[in-house]
Amino acid sequence: MLITLTMTAPDEATPATDLGFLLHKHPERLQSFDVAMGVAHVCYPEATPERCTVALVLEVDPVGLVRGRKSGPGAFELGQYVNDRPYAASSFLAVALGNVFRTALSGRCDQRPELAATAVPIEVSIPAIPCRNGAELIERLFAPLGWTVEATPVPLDPAFPEWGDSRYFSVRLTGRLKLAKALTSLYVLLPVLDNAKHYWVAEDEIDKLLRAGGDWLAAHPERELITQRYLKHRRAFVRSALAQLAEADDTAPEVLDDALDEPVVTELPDRPEPLAMLRRGSVLAALRASGARRVLDLGCGGGALLHDLLADTTFTEIVGTDVSAHALELAARKLKLDRRGERARDRITLRQSSLTYRDRELEGYDAAVLMEVIEHVDMERLPALERSVFQYAKPATVVVTTPNVEYNVRFPTLPEGHSRHRDHRFEWTRAEFQEWAGGVATRRGYAVRYLPVGPDDPEVGPPTQLAVFTREEAA
Questions:
Q1: Residue 298: closest CA among 377, 187, 232
Q2: Can you give the pTM of this predicted structure?
Q3: 310-348, pLDDT tens digit by residue?
Q4: How far is CA 68 from its chain centroid?
Q5: Using H for helix, E for strand and C for coil, what is the string for 415-464?
Q6: Which helix (H) or strand (E) holds 135?
Q7: Which domains does the chain possess?
């Protein structure tokens, strides 16, 4: 059983052999790992500055897998011994990927963190994948993740073309992706294509699926099919997985809570007020102008805005949500909820929720705030965020703030080309933000207007951009 992954040099300054750093496997070494189904070998058949290929070869012991087991009534007695397990990519290969490249799957690389966070040119080759539904399903599963798919059917016997094709395909995937996303797509989708996991599916498989697919599964058009097949059509598990957050409870806190770190820049040049204070003031002014009384703070983090909302009795019901339980614990401590009176505690609720899933408990509110949130979401997951906030929750007013990357040149302590926060997935110009916000407004039935936050520089604009969306039927 074989799979190869090739990275070409993403730029002149980065050799392709840095793939070894990303995978934590040295290109000059042959390494072998004992896994439940046999032995996995990792080697590099090609390692040049321009192009580097890693091969994972899985030696499956089909006899060892079934030694001591009994076939069920009516089962093909030799079926446990005569099969495709040693040759065709399946859940066995996915398990080996997870064991051998565990750190790379999580997106961590201490020696090349900037490369781990960068989309690089990747090519994956798998000589044999079983798929009874044809090449069209392979395309439907991989293409939405940014892969270009070439799926060639394998003939039953090249010597007898009249026999037709088998249910196996030789697959080549090419694209520019983060390595972690490339690996997690393989980890999840190989068993989905095979549609026959070779081990018992227990409840912990839900966490594995949500953890591996957390960065892309929610927005995938085939997420229900993926979930059903990955969990072997166990209805209770499928329902639970579709309802849960993308991030599993045992995700490393330092991975989940990067957004809680302090930003690189907090002060405006020659201005006494911190930018965060100006931002919260602008958001509160927009909420008051809308007449909102029941407010959602989506992605509330440590609860700075919640503190200001709670201090204003105009807001009768306040809900702070975050995907991170740790962030919510921090917010509760900062708000000192255990020391506040019953009336104040009754006005505020902290709730764990993901912005990329529909949460029916968040529907029907007057206003929602996404303050410095969207830039912490991967670009490909923004459509899922758009649906959950503007299509399902559908508050009368939505206030969104995000950094203006054009203003970054005015921060003397911010190195050129660096983001304001290490967890930012992007920072937009004014034109880019208005293109996104205008598209959302058009698609979801809102009007939108834009306001500056902080000094509006005549050349580069304000440090923070703010958009106020008003649902047209509520206007």
A1: 377
A2: 0.50
A3: 999 999 999 999 987 778 888 888 898 878 888 888 999
A4: 41
A5: CCCCCCCCCCCCCECHHHHHHHHHHHHHHHCEEEEEEEECCCECCCECCE
A6: helix 135-142
A7: 2-199 (3.30.1610.20), 258-474 (3.40.50.150)
